[in-house]
Amino acid sequence: MSRYISEALRKLVIERALYSCEYCRIHSENSFFTFHIEHIVSLKHGGKTIPENLAFACPICNLNKGTDIATFVEDVEDVVRFFHPRNDNWDEHFEIQQSGLISHKTLIGASTVKTLNLNHPDSIIERREMIRLKLL
Ligand SMILES: [Zn+2]
Q1: Ligand 1 centre from 85 Cα, in Å?
Q2: Percent of the chain with pLDDT over 70
Q3: Within-domain flag for 70
Q4: Do the domain assignments include residue 79?
Q5: How many domains does the chain have?
């Protein structure tokens, strides 16, 4: 169980993500913050430091996600897993509105939007501005 991420692996993850957060889609060049290489399934839950379990994430998404992998969604009895950047297609679970809001299309999208707080008011304003500037 290693936390170490080699420079080569880091580069692979960043380039594969096209330098954008794999959850909220903000581009790393349009952020003041340094993005993270994130374990999709945390080490604590048995996730490994391998390309299939790593994602590029902005610090807001990564810190909101933490080591969680699922949550409860309104009107659903069981926990619903989060969007998995390696196994799921973003466009099947989410849609960015012109207003900057990220709407969910599935329960997986709903659980991810909720826990990662993808629609924090500041994030919506930021995305709306990026849409206006054609950066998103
Ligand atoms: Zn993000």
Answers
A1: 12
A2: 99
A3: yes
A4: yes
A5: 1
